[in-house]
Amino acid sequence: MQRYHPVLVALHWLMALMILIALAAGELILENLANDDPDKILVLTGHMSAGVVIGALLVVRLVTRLRIRTPPRATTGNALLDRISVWTHWGFYVLVAGMVLSGLATALGAGLFPIVFGGAAETVPEELSGLPQRAAHGWIATVLAALIVLHISATVYHQLVLKDGLLRRMWFGPRS
Ligand code: HEM
Ligand code: HEM
């Protein structure tokens, strides 16, 4: 049984959880809170802090991924699907980086850091919603969510149809 290094396994599941929560908090809570609602600042405190931590973990993961030997790529027996899998995995790094950078650009553009972490105002400014980087943050989130659905579907396909035990590669245990 070939497995990913335990550091990559731990980072994969910690980041998966944090990214899913950040996506859900953005789509289900932030989107529905008016800018003049004081609760928005509370939600943004958690969302922006978690987002910056995700960015730091992404750098750690990328460096570790490039330095540590990983198991040979899994195969489905179909060259196109195998190629989509490679694009999806590297696509995640690009999209998550895009989320963090567009989130930071939105926060800087609307002057959110002193408001959210320094109590500089009671509510966020109305111009937040019109910023182009805010729009980009929303579009990238949609593409990322679609890729996650594809990724989870692929895992289910490997587990239930191909029955190749792929999920165990991304879990802790003996590596050879
Ligand atoms: C929550 C459901 C998830 C499941 C069930 C899952 C499952 C897996 C599995 C089984 C692998 C190993 C594939 C292999 O052995 O070749 C994997 C790899 C990977 N997953 Fe996930 N994953 C999930 C969420 C996520 C999320 C949210 C992200 C990032 C946005 C992500 C990013 C990746 C990346 C980048 C790899 C490739 C690792 C590498 O080679 O660097 N996964 N995932
Ligand atoms: C992987 C990391 C991140 C994910 C998955 C994420 C996800 C989201 C989502 C889904 C939305 C709602 C978008 C929409 O539906 O149009 C959102 C809004 C927002 N995010 Fe993030 N985000 C991340 C990182 C960050 C970071 C690092 C910051 C800032 C430091 C940030 C600041 C914001 C702000 C200011 C909003 C707008 C709130 C509003 O207009 O109501 N995000 N985020």
Structural overview:
By secondary structure, the protein is mainly alpha-helical. The chain has a single domain, classed as Fumarate Reductase Cytochrome B subunit (Up-down Bundle). It is 72% helix and 0% strand. It has six helices and no strands. It has helices at 6-29, 39-67, 79-109, 112-118, 132-162, 166-169. Helix 2 (39-67) packs across helix 3 (79-109). The mean pLDDT is 97. One protoporphyrin IX containing FE binds next to helix 1, helix 3, helix 5 and helix 6.
CATH class: Mainly Alpha
CATH fold node name: Fumarate Reductase Cytochrome B subunit
Q: Radius of gyration, rounded?
A: 19 Å
- Uncertain ranges: none
Instruction: Sketch the major β-sheet.
Output: none
CATH architecture: Up-down Bundle
Tally the structural domains: 1
Query: Helical stretch count?
Result: 6
Order of helices and strands: HHHHHH
Average pLDDT value? 97
Fraction of residues in helices?
over 70%
- Bound ligands, named by name, code or SMILES: protoporphyrin IX containing FE
